[in-house]
């Protein structure tokens, strides 16, 4: 996209604040092989429910009503295929039919279009159905031109966690090993669901702060069970944990690999030395001690869920 | 007290991202996750001034925020993710593994905080 994307659409995301290098390094400003004038050769469309700081970087801002993403995407798909669109449905989205037709026209005329979608699309009402709708729209636009869609991920290296789990188990998250082989079922084995149901009797948290982000019933369960946290800093989760092991900061005082949102691995070289062990070293030492421990569960049914 | 229904949109800000690396227990971080932004028209209609407290609740829980006016549409509230928003979030994921994290229907009323 750096070399080819002449139409860049951000949907339900605010990269100016949440991915501050995205405009300048990858999607908008760079001069590419087929876009010698950089920003001047690209059109940026921002779709959101409010006027964020990213609006300043946009050529076109489409402000839709909260919770109407699925409707807008479905109407766009209908216009792409030349089907009838009900004006009453369009009115409910907060946009006009002219705005939507103009967007479709730009999409079809683009040489390479890309849609980046954020949590404003994937975590609001409709969730995976919204994601499915934008991916379907991108797929259908390939009948006219080259078009792709890509999620704007959240915290650092969540892409890395997905990539590693996919390559080691075949699944990205929501995985149980309780039968000795990986099983995938979001809603059953995913972390929030297990904690809210109270199915887990211990938790090991690495590089995350669910105590500040998960629903309160999940946080309450983490406080009830023995929770072990590996984190360089004191967090809301470390405050409720039984054990907090301070570790070195990956990328600053510990080596590692970070994955870019397009799944390109980047080696991280530490600039500083830390008196604390790395996450990897702590987990390895725990694993070695567990391995030599007598198997006291050998004649009992296994009840422990390992989830990611 | 006047009670109004709003759509609450938890979000992230660059300032919050920076402050996470300073510390989540700092007064600056606490202020970020406890400050709720609404339109100036909504604040006026509720008789609120910047810094006034409001009680926000859903069917799952409630939290107290300090409010400020910002560039958001009428009827919409914005607040950075943090422990107060966790108290308002439902635990159900509809089989997806992720709870609905944005666009909650909430009730809001101004409150007077003692002291």
Please render the helix and strand layout as text.
The complex is a heterodimer of chains A (308) and B (115).
Chain A: E1 7-11, H1 15-18, H2 22-27, E2 43-48, E3 60-63, H3 69-80, H4 87-93, H5 97-109, E4 112-117, H6 119-122, H7 127-141, E5 146-151, H8 158-169, E6 175-176, E7 183-184, H9 191-197, E8 203-206, H10 210-213, H11 216-224, E9 227-230, H12 236-240, E10 243-245, E11 256-259, E12 265-268, H13 279-292
Parallel strand pairs in A: 1-2, 1-4, 2-3, 4-5, 8-9, 9-10
Antiparallel strand pairs in A: 6-7, 11-12
Helix pairs in contact in A: 3-5, 3-7, 9-11
Chain B: E1 4-11, H1 14-20, H2 27-33, E2 35-38, H3 40-45, E3 53-57, E4 62-69, E5 76-80, H4 83-88, E6 104-111
Helix pairs in contact in B: 1-2
Identify the notable features of this structure and list them briefly.
heterodimer, A: 308 residues, alpha/beta, Dimethylsulfoxide Reductase, domain 2, Rossmann fold, 2 domains, three-stranded parallel sheet, 13 helices, 16% strand, B: 115 residues, Barwin-like endoglucanases, 4 helices, 6 strands, 23% helix
């Amino acid at each position: 996209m750096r070399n080819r994307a002449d139409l860049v659409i951000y949907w339900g995301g605010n990269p100016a604040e949440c991915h501050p290098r995205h405009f300048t390094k990858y999607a908008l400003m760079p001069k590419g092989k087929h876009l010698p004038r950089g920003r001047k050769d690209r059109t940026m469309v921002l779709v959101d429910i409010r006027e964020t700081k990213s609006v300043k970087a946009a050529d076109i801002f489409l402000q839709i009503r909260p919770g109407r993403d699925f409707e807008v995407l479905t109407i766009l798909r209908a216009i792409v295929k030349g089907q009838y669109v009900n004006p009453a449905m369009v009115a409910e989205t907060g946009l006009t039919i002219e705005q939507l037709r103009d967007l479709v026209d730009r999409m079809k005329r683009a040489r390479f279009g890309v849609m980046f979608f954020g949590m404003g699309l994937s975590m609001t009402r409709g969730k995976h159905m919204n994601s499915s709708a934008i991916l379907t729209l991108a797929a259908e636009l390939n009948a006219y031109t080259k078009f792709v869609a890509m999620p704007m991920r959240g915290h650092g290296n969540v892409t890395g966690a997905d990539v590693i789990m996919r390559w080691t188990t075949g699944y990205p998250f929501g995985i149980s090993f309780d039968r000795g082989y990986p099983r995938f079922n979001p809603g059953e084995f995913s972390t929030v669901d297990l904690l809210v149901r109270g199915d887990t009797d211990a938790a090991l948290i690495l590089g995350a702060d669910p105590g500040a982000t998960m629903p309160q019933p999940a946080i309450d369960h983490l406080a009830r069970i023995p929770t072990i946290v590996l984190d360089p800093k004191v967090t809301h989760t470390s405050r409720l944990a039984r054990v907090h092991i301070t570790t070195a900061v990956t990328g600053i005082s510990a080596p590692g690999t970070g994955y870019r949102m397009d799944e390109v691995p980047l080696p991280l070289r530490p600039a500083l030395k830390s008196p604390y062990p790395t996450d990897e070293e702590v987990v390895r030492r725990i694993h070695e001690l567990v391995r030599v421990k007598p198997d006291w569960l050998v004649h009992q049914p296994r009840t422990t869920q390992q989830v990611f | 007290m006047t009670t109004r229904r709003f759509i609450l949109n938890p979000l992230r800000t660059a300032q919050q991202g920076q402050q996470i690396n300073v510390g989540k227990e700092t007064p600056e971080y606490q202020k970020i996750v406890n400050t709720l932004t609404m339109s100036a028209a909504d604040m006026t209609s509720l008789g609120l001034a910047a810094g006034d407290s409001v009680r926000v609740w859903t069917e799952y829980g409630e939290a107290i925020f300090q409010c400020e006016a910002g560039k958001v549409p009428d009827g919409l509230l914005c607040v950075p993710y943090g422990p107060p928003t966790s108290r308002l979030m439902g635990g159900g994921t509809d089989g997806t593994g992720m709870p609905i994290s944005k666009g909650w229907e909430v009730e809001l009323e101004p409150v007077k905080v003692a002291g």
